[in-house]
Amino acid sequence: MQAIGLAGYDVKRAQLKYLREQIDKKRGMIHDVDVDMLRLQTGKEI
Known about the structure:
- This protein is mostly helical.
- The protein has 3 helices and no strands.
């Protein structure tokens, strides 16, 4: 847990994306949602 706190934002974001992909594969769903990209596309803050 301490290592997670020390990791940079990009590292955390990449790890979260990887974990989401693993969960989606087990559930049979594949989503590639990038919050920053969604925010830019919709023009809304999330």
